[in-house]
Structure formats: structure tokens, C-alpha cells
């Protein structure tokens, strides 16, 4: 099959089916077909990489040269970047065919993909039961599009769970690499010390192929790590005999629905059959993760989002009276409710007199949380647990209560505070709704995670 045929197939599916899911913000049909034609020529010339001619999509947080990049916000509704994010450039060099940009929570703030200026994403699995359920967030567009087979793979980002949770809720595979493994250059910043780009696809093998392209040092990202990138597909078939699995006691508490706990334990039993050993471990400070994250992330967001001032780029209000009016009306009109809430929390936490009480304190807690993981990895190779407390919920169910929404991140957020790699792997269903198993690894152990996930699939 040629890349042009393959690309047409997915473009047709996208145009016919995406009305019900709203998983894409922009479809780049013309560019995709041009890229597919170029890929077919490259293949004929014997210069193909594994990605040459393969259709995929980018989360709309990655800057794409000449293609509008909205970050799910009215603020950037008409923003066309003049450059590519490093991740985008890498897929381009590999010859992959980008079908467009996937929907997301505004500025990646959310766990349900209901805060997008371009409307919510609907979970394909919910629709099979006739219900409008959330796709998870913030990379809900990428997850729903893969689940609905509109695209075989998509990039995503994870600041507090945004790859793993939507992957879990939509029944696809997602990997959040170690902080620094994938360049953040050109990835619109939310909380810079937590943000990490990663991969989503149907299988671990496909995400390994994605990571082979995405990972690596980038001099344009000051927190990018200069360390060799292994071939992540080379170790997929290693036997799991002797793998030491730790189950964090705190992740099987009453926050977890009993059905979810059963599914996760069943998945872990499969690993025992493959020769792994299982023991309980403790992450004593796990209960502090949400509180620390929801100080640190908004604080960093409030600083990062100060650049949207109506002067340099993005939305600008009509007929400003003076500079102050320009700033205030631009930001009042350009940002949605959740983004404003985060900016207010973050600005407060960083303000004079409160910095020590909130931000500094949260950073100290962050270190304790990281130390818990360091200790756990003295005893085990990987940690396993749930991704979300329950399967995909009904749209609108949690929108009135931000704190309930924040609790959705209870099992994912500590990983970001520690900078560790982690995956979400499909692990069965509850009442026809997908469940994700979380596998957390030590720093730079993406290969081990992908191996474990692949053996399970
Ligand atoms: N749900 C979390 C938040 O709203 C995480 C989002 C993310 O990982 N981008 O901040």
C-alpha cells in the first residue's frame, strides 16, 4: 500500500467520523497528501525510515510551522507559528505524515478535555453505550482519535497525567518519558518543571517506535538531557522472569473503586504468570502529591502565561482604550475559566509574603515525594497501580467542582513531581469502559516499561 492510499484512508475516516468525537482541532489534508507523496518517492528511492509515509497527528500544543497551533485556547485560535517544535521537526525528518492537530484542554489544564475552547472531546467507548463520556485530559483528542481508529498514533504531553489518564480512559497505550528525555522546545509551556512530551498509540510497540524518533538531547531545551537514546524496540521481547514489581500500598486505598482495584490486581497476576515477583511497597508521602502539584503547576503556569498580553502574538481585544485595558481585556476574553483559575492561584502562591508558605513548602514536599520513589526503586524494578480512580465519567459530571476534577490526578501526579517515566497500558474493561494499568519506572527506564507493556499485550 502506498502512503498516499494510507493517508487518504485515514483522512476519509477523520472527515466522516470525527464529528461525533471532536478529537481534532485542525485537519491538514493538503499538507498531509503532499507529505505522503514525498514519502512514497523517498521510499522508492530506498531512503525510508520506519516512519516514512506513516500517518499520525500532533497534539495542538506542539508548534507546527505554517499550521495553526491553538493549545485549545481562544488566545491562540489564529496563531500560526513560524517554526517547528523539535518533536515536530524530528517526525518531519523521519518522513511521517501529519494529518493534523488534536484537541486538548486549554493550555493542557484539565483531566477531561472539557476546557478546550473548541469544545469537549467525546470518548468513543462511551458512545458505544450511547453515553457522552469524557475522553480524559488534557491529551483527550490524541487518545480518542487513536481509540476511534482515526489515526494510528499521536503525540501528547504529560504535566500531571495528561498522556496516561486519557490513554487509560480511551483504552490506548501511552508513555510519559523521563523529564528531559524529549525536547520541550516549541511545546507551549504550562508548568515547565513538569511538562514532558510523549507518545500515544494502540500498542507499546508503536509507542516505542515513536519514542525512537522523539527522544534525544536538544540544545534548544535547557532541561533536555544529553544521554544516548537506545533503540526502544530492541528490548520489547526480553523475558520478564525475575522482574520485581512493587505495588504502592497508598495506590490501593479507598480512593480506588473496588472494581478498578480488582482489574489492576488481575493484570498484576498476569505478570506473575510471566515470572515476575510482586511485593507491596510504600510511598508514604503520596497523599501530599495533589496539594503540592496544585501549587507548583499553577505557579509556573502563571509565569509562563504572562507572555499572552495581546501585544506580541495571539488574541488581542478590540479597540483598547490604553495599555492596561489592552492587557486586561485581552486576557479576560482570551482565556477560559480554568486557565484564569490557575493564573489566580499561581499568582497568589508566588506573591510576596506567600512564597515561603506555599511555593517553597510545595517544593520541599516535592522532594519528599521524589525520595519515596528513590527508596522504592531500591527494592523493586517497576511500580504498578491504577491510572484513574474510576473509568471515564459522564461529561459535565465534575465541571462544577474543580477539586473533584483535580482528584482525578491522584495516581498520576507524583510521577511528574519526581520526573519519572511511566506508562498506561490497556488492562480490560469495567462495564464496557476501558481501564488502564500504570507502570512506573526508574529514571531512563523507558525501555523496561515498554518491554513490560509489550509482554502484557
Ligand atoms: N490534570 C492535570 C492538570 O490539570 C494534568 C494536566 C496535564 O498533565 N497537562 O493540571
From TrEMBL:
Q: Name one GO molecular function term.
A: glutaminyl-tRNA synthase (glutamine-hydrolyzing) activity
Which Gene3D superfamilies does the UniProt entry name for this protein?
Amidase signature (AS) domain
Enumerate the InterPro entries for this protein. Amidase (IPR000120), Amidase_CS (IPR020556), Amidase_dom (IPR023631), AS_sf (IPR036928), GatA (IPR004412)
Gene Ontology terms: cellular component: glutamyl-tRNA(Gln) amidotransferase complex
Q: Which residues cross the membrane?
A: none
What family does the entry list?
Belongs to the amidase family. GatA subfamily.
According to its UniProt entry, the function of this protein is described as:
Allows the formation of correctly charged Gln-tRNA(Gln) through the transamidation of misacylated Glu-tRNA(Gln) in organisms which lack glutaminyl-tRNA synthetase. The reaction takes place in the presence of glutamine and ATP through an activated gamma-phospho-Glu-tRNA(Gln).
* Name of the protein described by the UniProt record: Glutamyl-tRNA(Gln) amidotransferase subunit A
What is the organism of origin for this protein? Marinobacter lutaoensis
